[in-house]
Write a structure and sequence with these properties.
Layout (H helix, E strand, L loop, with lengths): L7 E6 L6 H10 L3 E5 L5 H18 L4 E5 L16 E3 L4 E5 L9 E3 L3 H6 L5 E4 L4 E9 L2 E8 L1 E3 L5 E2 L12 H13 L3 E4 L5 H11 L4 E6 L2 H5 L1 H7 L2 E5 H7 L5 H14 L4 E4 L14 H12 L4 E4 L1 H4 L4 H17 L1 H9 L8 H15 L2 E7 L4 H8 L6 E5 L2 H7 L5 E5 L6 H14 L8 E7 L8 E8 L2 H4 L6
Parallel strand pairs: 1-2, 1-16, 2-3, 3-12, 5-6, 12-13, 13-14, 14-15, 15-16, 17-18, 17-20, 18-19
Antiparallel strand pairs: 4-10, 5-9, 7-8, 7-11, 8-9, 20-21
Helix pairs in contact: 1-12, 5-7, 10-12
């Protein structure tokens, strides 16, 4: 099955998409990557969904990427004597402390001594996704006396955000470590790391994963935005998690931050997902709002590798319709002549290595002549990512002998991933590329493709060959590559 668009679609699975029939329908509607949210469901639930995806992958014969999204540490207040909660009035005083006594209108437990250790007067505390805002007047090792600047109802175990402070918290909680090991043993392709504040958070996850899954850093905290370049350098991919960004930062700052994060990841040839509330109304409605369609389109125009559905596909009433809508928006945008103008105007010229030069030349040759596709052999996915960074006008056929590589590459813009036999000679690679291009409908007999590869084969980072090859009948039907 060949997609007729370049941007990829990530669909989150949940109660609304929990069986073979629905998950297969989501794939056929356009989902390229399935997200397993480790915040919800047991390991048995996650394992069952993983098994279904792999069965669909086998039945359809196309690599499918699976992303496990780790929950990260959750900061929450304690409980209240009144289960209905309390109404905080603007201008009122309110204390958070370590006392386990049930809360009232004047105070509540905040069971996170590390927050108190990091707080300073003037810092903001946001409760319930920012609906309530407190400013710290005075604080100590076990308390914070605050003034309510934005009031509202505070109730049991509501979440707390601390946007102004770099918290001395690891990105991986005890639950996350257990979930990470389970997901890696299960065989997921990507791990999404929540609560990233510094590059060390990513390095810790990478050490625990031990190469069994690629690490995708979720940028959802102001500290992560400030340290973005360093975080990007040690990450395999990026997720722009706009929900939490919009809580911890002024919502008006999120669009320019999104653009900067996407461009940075594109320049680094690392896949970037734009996520959160893309088609939020489709949780309850079979059609999106015009603003939501424009939001999805904006991410595509920016050149994001993937766009993501969360509750829309996991718990909404119309999961398949949501994927179909996203797919149709992508098809419409990518047919627009303005799309190519925007993509090419935002292309970052990278000419630091031989590989950079090879893939740039491949794009230029393909676009200047009647080339039907760029085929690249990639052991680790690096070469294919470099080709995708160029955002060429012609399709990209990413060939690899490794299913694990093909699955991971399925998140990257424009890559049609195919499994081939291992190659140790360039002529064999040419024949394999031609056969794949013809078989998958990218080219016909006597058409031309551009092929990039590295010699010696099966060595990471050796992209050093470019060849224009005809889809010759004799090569397609050849029995012996020699």
């Amino acid at each position: 099955m060949r997609r007729l668009r370049n941007v990829k679609i990530v669909a989150t699975l949940g109660p609304a998409s929990n069986d073979y029939k629905t998950i297969r329908a989501l794939f056929e509607a356009g989902a390229d990557v399935f997200r397993l949210n480790m915040s919800h469901g047991t390991h048995a639930d996650i394992g069952a969904r993983h098994k279904i995806i792999r069965q669909i992958e086998s039945d359809i014969g196309r690599p499918i990427a699976i992303l496990a999204d780790l929950q990260g540490p959750k900061l929450r207040v304690g409980t209240f004597a009144n289960d209905a909660g309390e109404e905080l009035i603007e201008g009122a005083k309110f204390r958070m402390d370590l006392s386990t006594t049930p809360g009232d209108v004047t105070r509540v437990n905040l069971p996170h001594p590390e927050i108190f250790a990091a707080l300073e007067p003037g810092a903001a505390l946001l409760v319930n996704d920012g609906k309530i805002r407190l400013v710290v007047d005075k604080c100590g090792k076990d308390f914070a006396d605050c003034t309510v600047t934005v009031g509202g109802t505070i109730s049991n175990r509501k979440g707390v955000n601390v946007p102004d402070v770099l918290l001395p918290l690891a990105a991986l909680s005890i639950k996350d470590r257990s979930d990470l090991e389970f997901a890696c043993e299960l065989g997921v392709d990507w791990l999404a790391l929540s609560f990233v504040q510094r590059p060390e958070d990513v390095l810790e996850a990478r050490q625990l994963a031990r190469g069994r899954a690629a690490i995708l850093s979720k940028i959802e905290k102001p500290a992560a935005v400030k340290a973005y370049d360093a975080i990007l350098q040690v990450s395999d991919g990026i997720m722009v998690a706009r929900g939490d960004l919009g809580v911890e930062l002024p919502v008006t700052s999120v669009p320019p931050i999104q653009k900067r994060l996407v461009r940075g990841a594109r320049a680094a040839a690392k896949p970037v997902i734009v996520a959160t509330q893309m088609l939020e109304s489709m949780i309850e409605s079979p059609v999106p709002t015009r603003a939501e369609v424009s939001d999805v389109a904006t991410a595509i125009y920016e050149g994001a590798d993937a766009i993501m559905l969360s509750a829309e596909s996991a718990a909404g009433k119309y999961p398949i319709e949501a994927v179909t809508t996203m797919n149709n928006v992508a098809l419409s945008v990518e047919k627009d002549p303005t799309y190519r103008q925007v993509i090419e105007a935002s292309r970052v010229i990278q000419r630091e290595t031989i590989g950079d030069g090879i893939v740039a030349a491949a794009r230029e040759i393909a676009e200047a002549t009647n080339i039907k596709a760029i085929a690249c052999f990639s052991q680790s996915g690096t070469t294919a990512s470099l080709v995708a960074r160029e955002r060429p006008r012609v399709p990209i056929l990413a060939l690899t002998p490794l299913m694990s590589t093909a699955r991971r590459m399925s998140l990257t813009w424009g890559l049609h991933c195919a499994i081939t036999e291992p190659q140790d000679r360039f002529k064999g690679a040419v024949i394999a590329a031609i056969r794949a291009a013809v078989a998958d409908g990218f080219a016909e007999k006597e058409d031309f493709i551009v092929l990039t590869a590295g010699v010696p084969f099966n060595v990471k980072g050796t992209t050093n060959i470019l060849r224009v090859a005809p889809c010759d009948e004799r090569l397609i039907s050849a029995v012996d590559p020699e």
